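Onboarding guide, step 5: your first structure request.
Type a short instruction followed by the sequence, for example:

Predict the 3D structure of this protein.
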Amino acid sequence: SVSLPLLSKSLSFSESYSYNREDDNPESLRFSTSWYGLSLSYVMSYTYGYDFNSGWKVRPEKEFLPYSLSFSYSTPSKTFYNWYNRIQTAPALSTSIVADLLRPTNSYFLFTPSLSFKVTDFMTLTFSATTRNSVLYWYFHNNEGDMYSDWGGFPGNILKDLTDSFRFDNQSVRESSGFKIKSMDMTLTHDLHDWKFNMTLKFSPRVITENGKKLYDFSPYISLGVVWNPMDSMKTNIIDEYGEWHIE
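The system replies with structure tokens like these:
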């Protein structure tokens, strides 16, 4: 393994390689680089490959194959101050694209914006949402037609599709978008001097089965906690896990 930091560690490269002497084959190879909020990673692995023929068919023998290629970006932290610097507002955005090089149709794109409000010595309130696109093959095509027409794809514009996912004025356009909301979160932390109160509220659609039928459940996940600052071990958590309460 090798790691190389440059430019006061704002730019870095790393590589790792694993070889199995007993089986006489390479196990894994990873290259990664990062620059401020950008990062890129490439992975090869000794694993089973796949061929597409009316669905993915696994190959009978393991091979040393390209496994994944990922790209991620997080915006630099930026805080805006108001009312004598007592109120702080901090927007943020993180995105990641993971290309599955064994089965390209399993590639996905995550888009997570967040917004945090803080009142000094009183409370911090953070909102965030995660959207996932699991149909990236929709957007690839060549001059001869759809490269992935066998998988049901169509030429498209990923930025327009992301915008369409926020079209609350047009339900059909919004629902046809490849971007689907996976979770919406709210976290509240209240400063009680010697104690700290925190609450997390999370909405995440789940597929459940009732009476033999599958349907989406939007029950929230709620967590309430109180921590004594002088002694972190003195704490209580009350959790409503999709309708079932329990205490930790």
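Each response can be followed by summary notes, for example: The first strand starts at residue 2 and ends at 6.
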